[in-house]
Amino acid sequence: MANVFEQEGSPTQDSAFREHLNKNWEAGNRKFAELEGKVQSTEQKYDDVLGNQDSNAKDKKEKETRIKKLEDQVAKLSLAVFGDGATAVHTISSSEDNHSQIAEEVKLD
Fold first, then answer.
1. Are 31 and 39 in contact (CB under 8 A)?
2. Could you tell me the pTM of the whole model?
3. Are 28 and 5 in contact, with CB atoms under 8 Å apart?
4. Is residue 81 part of a domain?
5. How far is the C-alpha of 13 from the C-alpha of 16, rounded, in Å?
6. What pLDDT score was predicted for residue 67?
7. Where is this region: Disordered (predicted)?
8. 4 is a domain residue
9. Each residue's pLDDT tens digit, 20-44
10. How far apart are CA 100 and CA 57, in angstroms?
11. Total number of domains in the chain
């Protein structure tokens, strides 16, 4: 804690007045120390928030890239299933007795 108000006295001052000034100076120094602590706390919180913003921006960019890739995959699948670029799905019979069919291949490109 830095003393903002220095105690000083002169031999011509009476002791009651000097004591009164000393109490005021001590109270002022305590208040300045309290304010200094609040400023440091605020600066720390600001630094934490700023650091979080940087990591949040990086996470956002990674998630946007992932979403874009997923959208591209969904678009290809939609085109293959519903769109003009659909390719035939070749099927083979699993057995003569079982009439279920299984897909052989789907081309997305």
1. no
2. 0.43
3. yes
4. yes
5. 8
6. 95
7. 42-65
8. no
9. 888 888 898 999 999 999 999 999 9
10. 50
11. 1
